[in-house]
Amino acid sequence: MDLDAVIYELEKIFDKKNINYNEPMKNHTSFRVGGPADIFIIPEKTWQVISAIKLFKEHNIPFFIMGNGTNIVVRDGGFKGAVIKLTSLNNISVEGNKIKAQSGAFLSNVSMEALKNSLKGMEFASGIPGTVGGAVTMNAGAYGPEIKDVIESAVLCDYDGNLFCFNRDELELSYRHSIVQSGNYIVLEAVFALEKGDSTAIRSRMEELNRRRADKQPLNYPSAGSTFKRPEGYFAGKLIEDAGLKGYSIGGAKVSEKHAGFIINYNNATAKDIIELIKKVQEIVNEKFGVLLEPEIKIIGEE
């Protein structure tokens, strides 16, 4: 890949403050691990996202779209190509019972806007640390409700820079899945349709869910939330606990003693430690119960 030519073109699209080279990905992921990305850009406008992906595609440069980095592990060798972080695309607006949010807006902020406007339905999202784009991509959920229960539509672009507006059904939302993944789309914004509610009841529900989260989850250590998807008919955390793996560690990575469904970076783990622990947990649970756990987190980059 001709990086010099790409850098020249990129610097026409972005302010230099929005482009970094050899950027350590441990600074941008909730696991706090990961080697450097060759190119790291933070768009402030939608057209910049589209221009960048067209440029990378034209020059055959691999690229990865990220939000707040709460659901990824970047390997220790880093990412050979470009990472596009969307968290500066974070506008949120409210009209009637609908909230429109750009893909880089934090879900927690969308939830707070709903509260301010006495709109119910987004309470479940108040403690989810990711962005709107990641939440739509994964059909994020907590304590029952999921994004599919509140989303009305989303604006996506494909890797050629074409724009599409998909309604809820067209997004093909199911457990931790959407057309965004299977169709190689990028989420640019989403519209959520909520219901009028009582702000005191909404706040109370948010506080209750956040208390439950704090009680049950190891929030004081870097992690990427639930490490594994829920296997049909089982709970990942219970299988891992029943396999005797609570507290099991490799290097600085450990299965949380508070919630076995979480792998945590408890002592300067490397990405290699985390990935090896994921594989070990899969292997032991499969041996004991015949269930192959599927990671919920995405692993990218080079060894």
Please describe the topology of this protein.
Elements: H1 3-13, E1 19-24, E2 36-41, H2 46-58, E3 63-66, E4 72-74, E5 79-85, E6 92-95, E7 98-102, H3 107-116, E8 119-120, H4 132-138, E9 151-158, E10 163-167, H5 179-182, E11 185-193, E12 195-196, H6 199-216, H7 236-242, E13 249-250, E14 253-255, E15 263-265, H8 271-289, E16 298-300
Parallel strand pairs: 2-5, 3-5, 4-16
Antiparallel strand pairs: 1-2, 6-7, 7-11, 8-12, 9-10, 9-11, 13-14, 14-15
Helix pairs in contact: 1-2
Notes on the protein architecture:
- The chain is α+β, with helices and mostly antiparallel strands and about 300 residues long.
- It folds into 3 domains: about 5-85, 2-Layer Sandwich (Uridine Diphospho-n-acetylenolpyruvylglucosamine Reductase, domain 2), CATH 3.30.43.10; about 90-215, Uridine Diphospho-n-acetylenolpyruvylglucosamine Reductase, domain 3 (2-Layer Sandwich); about 220-300, Uridine Diphospho-n-acetylenolpyruvylglucosamine Reductase, domain 1.
- Helix content is about 30%, strand content about 25%.
- The chain has 8 helices and 16 strands.
- It has helices at about 5-15, 45-60, 105-115, 130-140, 180, 200-215, 235-240, 270-290, and strands at about 20-25, 35-40, 65, 70-75, 80-85, 90-95, 100, 120, 150-160, 165, 185-195, 195, 250, 255, 265, 300.
- It has a 5-stranded antiparallel β-sheet. Strands 1-2-5-3 form a 4-stranded mixed β-sheet, with helices on one face. The chain has a 3-stranded antiparallel β-sheet with strand order 13-14-15.
